[in-house]
Write a structure and sequence with these properties.
Order of helices and strands: HHHHH
Distance between the termini: 10 Å
CATH topology: 434 Repressor (Amino-terminal Domain)
Number of helices: 5
Oligomer: single chain
Strand content: under 5%
CATH architecture: Orthogonal Bundle
Number of strands: 0
Helix content: 55-70%
Shape: globular
Structural class: mainly alpha
Radius of gyration: 10 Å
CATH class: Mainly Alpha
Number of domains: 1
């Protein structure tokens, strides 16, 4: 499952808006929007925060087994 789908799944499961997810990860809402559209990938710091806050392994975030 690509990172876009995993981020969407996190948002749905936890009832998070783009703004709330952005606040948790310390990025702006536009960045989250760009991730969801597949125009940008999360940077290293964001990947680590997703791992820490949501217990998603970095490899899983990018569909690596």
């Amino acid at each position: 499952m690509p990172y876009v789908e995993i981020i969407k799944q996190i948002m749905v499961e936890r009832g998070l808006s783009q703004q709330k997810l952005a606040d948790i990860l310390g990025v702006n809402q536009t960045t989250v929007s760009q991730w969801l559209l597949g125009r940008k990938k999360p940077g290293y710091d964001s990947i680590l925060l997703i791992y820490q806050k949501f217990d998603i392994l970095p490899n899983a975030l990018f569909g690596i087994d």
